[in-house]
Design brief:
The chain is mainly α. The chain has helices at 2-27, 34-37, 43-69, 78-87, 96-119, 129-149, 155-165, 171-195, 231-239; strands at residues 212-215, 218-221. The chain has 3 domains: 2-32; 43-195, no CATH class; 210-245, no CATH class.
Length: 245
Amino acid sequence: MNYTKNKKTQDIITEKRHHEHILWKLSKIFRFRFWFLATRTDARLLSYIYLMATCFLAVMSLGIAARFCSVNLIFPSLGPTIFMQFYAPSSPMSSPRNTILGHLIGCLIGLCFYWLTIKAGGVPGTISMENVAILGAAVGTCGTIMGITGLLHPPAASTTLLIVFGYLGHPINIMAFSLSSILISFEAWLVHKAAGIKFPLWAPEKSDVGPQFHTKLGRLDLSKRSENMSVEEIAARLASRQGIK
């Protein structure tokens, strides 16, 4: 009876050790995560390797999805988006919210000015004074709306240019472009999550409220309130006739 009891206890201990051994083996997977490797090697070199690998993976995944769906999902303005999301994932401009909605703003503004070009009798894609003026107004409008709404994503301005030039004028291309921005943002979240790098699922933790200017009088940050500003920043704001709240 004692022998049977001891055997059961030994079996339980053996099973527990086997379970711990499996967990220990699985825990070694975390050694491939970015945060762990950054403590064991040159972090700068590691970030460059990570950037190259993730950008390659993002473009390849878009290409595979495009081949599977028989719809073009690779667009020029997505190149800067991919670079931003994997080079500066902590930047609010790289967040999925700013990426998706920023490109949506770029698409809508581009369509409006593309329609204006047609109505003005211009030919999209040609370089004339009328078209150049419309292109400038389109980019300026896109940048202003992104600044007002706080949905800052610089590559969206190139989306506006592409549409006004007539490269993405078809509704199917606009839908495919929107789908691509969603896929890229989801993939960036998935890859960063696996690598142990903080990346928001939607909105950034902290968004840019206003533009920043570095003048001879000092750094002028329009997103800061007076209690958080240095003497140089207050002087720069007063000199530029910006009110202090």
